[in-house]
Amino acid sequence: SMADLHLLVLDGATGLTPGDRALAQRLRKLNKPLVLVMNKADLRTAEGFATEAETLGYGVPIMLSAAHTQGLEDLYNVLKLYVEEVPEEADEEEAAEEPDTDEADAATDTEEEDEPEELEDVEADYSRFPKRPAGAIRLAILGRPNVGKSTLTNALLGYEAMLTGPTAGLTREAVPHDFAFNDQAYTLIDTPGLRRKSRVDKESLEFLSVGQSLNAVSQADVVILVLDASTHNIATGNWEIFEQQDAQIASVAMNQYKPLIIALNKWDDVKDWNACLADIKIQMHHRMHAIHTPLAMPISALKGKGLDDLMKVTAEAFDANYSTFSTGKLNNLLSKVLAKRSPPLANGQVVSLKFIRQSDTNPPTFTFWGNRISEVSDTYKQFLRNQLADTLGLQHLPVKVLFKANKNPFAGRKSKVRTGAKPNKPNPKKAVSMAKHSTRVKKRTP
Predict the structure, then answer these.
(1) SS3 for 274?
(2) Same fold for the domain at 6-82 and the one at 115-129+324-405?
(3) Fewest 10 Å CB contacts: which of 15, 117, 128, 211?
(4) At 340, is the secondary structure helix, strand, or coil?
(5) What's the pLDDT tens digit per position in 218-276?
């Protein structure tokens, strides 16, 4: 109650909880300004939870990642709106150091509109990016009980390392195994079958097994999700292979931006191969939005069929996860994408994307700069992600894209072709008064 402003911080990993709603209700009774913040915005789940958070009645939450210091600038800009006005008798020399808000914004916009003469001058620092490890590829195999995970493990290893059979829960521990396939070394972790959480007793051994499976994802370089394709039978009306629980398992890997491959096991028992492939592609498209073109590989773990192709795409996905791309190539691609489809207007104002640069590998991460970039719609972000993935050969990976507003990597650089009058002398009083309003009218220097 002593605070002048409240920040209500939500968890982007779990979404809105009953406790969040109760706290928001209590804060509303205090009749104090409140800013809604969603932390862990780097997780893919946060995008969906942001819409849910608006139901609290405090508007759109500010998306940030405190751990990665992303989105803090947006928070700072909002906090500035609540800064008290500087008294008029303040020292004039001290006040004179404060830039005029309108003119400073105009200068910033001008700098953001400038384009570099040579993109090579601002290439990403690839030396700090994670490099492809020379050792074994760490592989996690996930799936519901009895889809054939242990059978696949035994087939890859060449010996029976795991118990197999119709009884659920034969495999209880996540056990690492080293093996080589086509001259590539692997460390394979065969994990227990994941059942629905409602069916897992928290005090049971299987509850611990579920935790081991989730931990295996964080340790893995590539994840294979095994499905039972033999259940597909149009004649009996059973066409759905990729069930809701499979989608939840897949989301564990996608939220951590892990390369994910679908293994359609028991393929030799499928009645109609073409229909099965067509149906699974539709199901993956609806439930795996983070990957532009999910990979589904037909296999028969019991008979050892399709394993060569499965392991080939596994190694390729691992290599692609460490790909790097020049800044020039990325900005040429951005120009083509914008020509194909520009960002939709935000409140009648133009949203412009100025620049793109790769900011990391494992996963491939790309950062966009521009004006009003915080107002880019989720649909258009998905479009940009798909265009990048498809053009750069990353269509089978969960590509990560970041958006930074009001920041240009060329800020402070003098352009040889830039001309114009010098800014007018700053007016500190007007700058302070403008900071009180959430909507600021920008004036440009002629």
Answers:
(1) helix
(2) no
(3) 128
(4) helix
(5) 889 999 999 999 988 776 777 788 887 788 788 888 888 999 999 999 999 998 889 89
